[in-house]
Design a protein that fits this description.
This protein has about 280 residues and is an alpha/beta fold. It has nine helices and 14 strands. Bound molecules: the ligand N[C@@H](CCC(=O)N[C@@H](CSS)C(=O)NCC(=O)O)C(=O)O. Pfam families: Lactamase_B (PF00753).
């Protein structure tokens, strides 16, 4: 009986092995990195704009469903709200949410003013940030605009309430200051913690498929976008082990942002908080 079972298992194992060898491997036929950005129906329906503030080197992102016209904006800057309103009007969009990846220390969020100008818009921030907003979110929450859903991932370390927003169907993620292109947010602010940031990036961002496009909160070097695979291979800070990373982060010696003392308290009120 035992002999028969062993023979049977051997046949099953050989069959499985042959099946695996014969079946064409998708990644050898079409390498993932040259496939189009979005293989789902959403690519035609997504309106996506990356907008830049050349004073604070901040990126703002506008995402909308072209069919329903529902939109969200990520990390608007108060000084550039007129620009954002013009684009929203040009495309006839209905702004649902003004999302903040965190309480910023270098510029004032535009989410409070946008909310005043557009009655359908609600300001959003992490509950962990303890800042005021209409909607408080946390890890695993979903924010919808039209047919699209953004997954909220908690990525603390630069600040306690840092969030990354993931648009799974389109393989896009908006990392705020948790992950910058070939860098990451500094961890020397009062709420900063290098070990927490290291774990956030490895567990919540590097766990995404390698072909996900990552859009950061800032770039100081003229770059616009990266991928999970690229950052895993080329981010000199985050390729280190935890102690190497902590050593680098504790010795960055960056000057404090010029507007630090002014912006933090204003951003705790969501720019201009008005229920
Ligand atoms: N020079 C700028 C501030 C630059 C800075 O500190 N950037 C932050 C994100 S905005 S709080 C950061 O985390 N940088 C990390 C890095 O490695 O550069 C100013 O004066 O405003």
């Amino acid at each position: 009986m035992t002999y028969l079972c062993q023979r049977l298992l051997g046949v099953v194992a050989r069959t499985l092995k042959e099946t695996r060898v014969r079946r064409p491997c998708l990644s050898t036929v079409t390498p993932v990195w040259i496939r189009p950005i979005c293989s789902c129906a959403c690519v035609d329906d997504l309106l996506f704009r990356q907008l830049f503030d050349n004073f604070t080197y901040t990126y703002t992102y506008l995402l909308a469903d072209n069919k329903s016209k529902e939109a969200v904006i990520i990390d608007p800057v108060i000084d550039l709200v007129q620009r954002d309103l013009r684009i929203i009007r040009d495309f006839n969009l209905e702004l649902r949410y003004a999302l903040n990846t965190h309480v910023h220390a270098d510029h004032v969020t535009g989410s409070g003013v946008l909310k005043q100008r557009i009655p359908t818009c609600q300001s959003v921030i992490s509950a962990a940030s303890e800042a005021k907003a209409n909607v408080h979110v946390g890890d695993g929450d979903i924010l919808r605009f039209g047919a699209f859903s953004l997954e909220v991932r908690a990525t603390p370390g630069h600040t306690t309430g840092c969030l990354t927003f993931v648009l799974h169907g389109c393989r896009l993620a908006f990392t705020g200051d948790a992950l910058l292109i070939r860098g990451c947010g500094r961890t020397d602010f009062p709420q900063g913690n290098a070990e927490t940031l290291y774990r956030s990036v490895h567990e919540k961002i590097f766990s995404l498929p390698e072909n996900f496009m990552l859009y950061p909160g800032h770039d100081y070097t003229g770059q616009t976008v990266t991928t999970v695979g690229e950052e895993k291979a080329m981010n000199r800070r985050l390729k280190e082990d935890l102690s190497g990373f902590t050593e680098i982060m504790n010795n960055l010696k960056l000057p404090m942002p010029k507007e630090f003392a002014k912006t933090l308290p204003v951003n705790m009120e969501c720019g201009v908080f008005d229920e």
